[in-house]
Amino acid sequence: MLLAVLSGFILCTLAPWLTRSFGDRAGWLLSLLPAALFIYFLTWIPTIAQGEAVIIHYPWIPGLDINMSFLVDGLSLLFALLISGIGTFIIIYAGGYLHGHKDLPRFYAIMFAFMASMLGLVLSDNIIALFVFWELTSVTSYLLIGFLHEDKDNRWFALQGLLVTVVGGLALLAGLLMLAVAAGGEYTLSGILAAEDIHAYPFYTGMVLAILLGTFTKSAQVPFHFWLPNAMAAPTPVSAFLHSATMVKAGVFLMARLNPSVGGTDLWFYALGIFGALTMLTGSVMALRSTGLKAILAYTTVMALGTLTMLIGIGTEQAIIAAMTFLLAHALYKAALFMLAGALDHETGTKDVTKMGGLRQVMPITFLAACLAALSLAGLPPLFGFIGKELMFEATLGAGGALAAFTSLLALLSAIMIVAMAAVFALRPFTGRRKETPKTPHEAPLSMLIGPVTLATLGLVFGLFGFLPAAALVGPAVAAVYGDPITVELYLWHGINAPLMMSIAAVIAGLVLFAKWDTVLAGFKRLTFIDRFGMERGYEHAMDGLVAVAEWQTRLLQNGSMGNYLTTIVLTIVGLAGWTLLVHTDTPIPLGLFDVNLYEAVVAGLVVVGAVFASVTTSRLGAVATLGIIGFSIALIYVLFSAPDLGTTQIMVETLTVILLVLVLFRLPGFIDYSAPATRIKDAVVAVALGGLMTLLILAVNDVPVAEPISDQLVHWSEPEGHGRNIVNVILVDFRALDTLGEIFVIGLAAIGVYAMIRFRAEDKAQ
Amino acid sequence: MEPLMAFVVGGLFAASIYMMLRRSLVKLVIGLILLSNAANLLIFTVSGMQRGLPPLIAPGDTLPAGGWADPLPQALVLTAIVIGFGVLAFAVVLIHRAYVVVKEDDLEKMRSTDT
User: Quick one: which of A327, A214, A305, A315 has its CA closest to A265?
Assistant: First the structure.
């Protein structure tokens, strides 16, 4: 299992090389990995179909109790199969779609990294690992959306997708950690699902909101839906993959995953039900007013994500069955439709559906596959999509409370529009009068047809033989999401009932809408306010605000004035350390100045007087001379208090310093005081505040009993082991020799720097 | 002695910060020197000051007679003195170089390079 998840990452590093070596055949070759994974996951079906959930452990960071553990149950297996199965076709498809593209190796590398992250996300049992994979999908999808990075818009849209999902990701992390606390420190999904009293967690509302913010941004729910259609900037294979089985479904996956333990409350019910239904309607309306093939599909994806969220929120048995059926159906037809849209775009050179027509004769296979997939999208029998839609109507009617009427009405409205858009997609490009297109169209190559044809056919097979997916895929997934085993039976014919009536109504109304589509489109064109007040404007304002705040605080803190920096740093230190000192010191700090000899006091006084004099003098020479006095006094203090080595070093360094200052300082202008008296007083206050703080700190530290010095052992080793009688020297050149080596290195660097700067001056003069 | 030294170190810190807050390059150098001295004395003071117990071993002995002052902080301060000098030498030449290039001693007027 570990290999299954990580093999994508391994292949990601090899993919560029393989792509270069095998050229045109690389797509077929590389697709072997997801195909093999798909078969591997298929072998799990018999185990999982019996209602078992398997947990596989690999220690990852044992010290922190983070395991690389995988949870294989109906839900994760369904997703794993979709990811690897659709992934196989996408890889083959990309070979045809991006044929000869110079960055194809990079594309495959990112694609495999993305696929592996997605597999990790759905299979992880540990929530920390899940979060890491979650963010990895955000990052890799950013790279994929911005794949054609030479276009400014693409980069902007990629960044938009990344920022929206990553902001949600942060909220999700908080939510997941709270969830772990709520479950009693349980960091595994299996543990959380087994935990009893998550609803009793005092911060339950906050936790749910944080998690939902993460899943809503990822799965493009209103009001965060705007990034998904913009992500269409990606090459079509990416869109097909991201919007059918993966990225955007991650949020749905997590809500479904957490439904048994977190769900079941009013908050969950209404938040998911209302936002899901609104997203569903928004997606349908926006699809209706789009003319680009990919834009239409993107908005129907928004619709599908809304539907899934709504169904999970409703949470009844029918709703969960409907959700999982709809999810599978959607993955199949949406991947097929995207690939077909890409094929049309590839062959005709345009994405605009109003500019295509009469392609039936030239692209018969594409037409056939498009019909099958669009029928499934529209929810017509005998396709699998029909079963999904019937179940959805059944679920909304049985939602309970005020939500039943609300969701049913919205579901019906969006179903009408989706029927119309499915008809637009399947009929507009292929029927009617032939239109001139930028490229002369002919049938797409095999690599670009095998995927959509297979997936569209699967939609038909699953529709006709509903027991196949019911037993193998949907049933176990429903059991995992619902929390209890349920027998799922999927039939095309449910008898004459309300859902069937709604379906028939939707189809008739949808076809009418399709016939009038051009009029509707013209009507929408006049409603420009949608663009002006949409959520995307909100995002732009937020981004502008962020930049403005960054600019403001940079101007405030990083204004280029050395004095400001220093003042800020000093005041921060004084504030934080002073406050801590104030709070944590109970006893008054003792003084005890008495243990001082007269000559010691004189030397100490010299230092202080010298420091004050150096600060206020107007004479450079005076200041340098005072520095010398201070330095030599300090040397005396070292000598008086048992540190002869420090004393000698200090004397030598001090002598050199004075010579250096005299040499250099007198090439600089004299002591000029630029600042006003008020500024000087302010600076003096800041300076004295730090000085006072240091004094208090030393007094406070002095009061604390000193622990046994760690150097005792060094003293004992010095003569017998180090063969030296000056212990300080032995420490420097023996016990801490590496430190000293580093010190020599620093001095050497400084010397090189000084030398270089002096030499440059000589060269300037030579010029 | 330590309480007295606390005030000496505090005074050195105050003087160094005050000098570094001046706008003149030359005063910045003086501030740097004072800061280096203040930090060294700080370490030396808080490690405990003792009179007449240098960590030296007489010939024939294996330990200093009659106790010793902790040698480890001394080793650290020694390193710090030397490094401080290296930094100072570099800073002084750098400041001189900056003055030669921009012909300006007032730090507030050297800001255009930063924005």
Answer: A315
